Amino acid sequence: GRHGNLPRMETNRLVTEGPYRHMRHPMHLGLLFFPLAFAFLAGSPSFILIIAPAEALFMLLMIKWVEEPEALRKFGDAYRHYCRKTPWFCLKKECLKTLFRKVERNH
After folding, report:
1. Above 60 in pLDDT, residue 2?
2. What is the pLDDT of residue 105?
3. Is the Cβ–Cβ distance between 37 and 47 less than 8 Å?
4. What pLDDT, in 10s, does the model give residues 11-35?
5. Element of type H or E holding 32
6. Residues 6 or more apart from 52 whose CB is under 8 A from it?
7. 42, 54, 75, 105: which is deepest, by most CB within 10 A?
8. Which of 36, 30, 31, 26 is nearest to 88 (CA)?
9. Residue 89: domain span
10. Is 15 helix (H, G, I), strand (E, B) or coil?
11. Could you tell me the CA-to-CA distances from 44 to 8, 9, 32, 36, 51 in Å, in that order?
12. Has residue 74 been placed in a domain?
């Protein structure tokens, strides 16, 4: 993460290929499902109903208040244009099928 001991993989160019062609935050989409999957595996109704949604809300707020403004500062008009044509997340069936197909090809 941003404040951990491991170095971040910084990029000096706006990435719009691969999964980023379909949504601006594909990695976060996976991270949103992680607590929900854990809750189901643990069989914890309170985790499913309280903690997983709270974590999802926290992540969405971090994207809105930290990551999006940071990308705007770093990439300027190119990021604004990217935002106009690319949604935050894409949960449409066609989009998810395309993303998972690309993941399968890489393994």
Report:
1. no
2. 60
3. no
4. 789 999 888 888 898 888 778 778 7
5. helix 26-42
6. 35, 36, 38, 39
7. 75
8. 26
9. 21-105
10. coil
11. 33, 35, 17, 10, 10
12. yes
- CB 20 within 8 Å of CB 85: no
Mapped onto helix, strand or coil, the DSSP state of residue 72 is helix
Q: How far is CA 23 from CA 6, 45, 94, 97, in A?
A: 26, 30, 13, 13
Is residue 88 within 8 A of residue 25, CB to CB? The reply is: yes
In a domain, 15, yes or no: no
Q: Record the pTM.
A: 0.69
Question: Does residue 2 belong to any structural domain of this protein?
Answer: no
Summarised one tens digit per residue, pLDDT across range 29-69 is 778 778 778 878 888 788 778 887 888 889 889 999 999 99
Q: Is the dihedral of CA 4, 23, 99, 102 positive or negative?
A: negative
CA distances from 85 to 2, 43, 54, 58, 67 (A): 27, 39, 29, 25, 18
Residue located via tokens 């935002």: 83
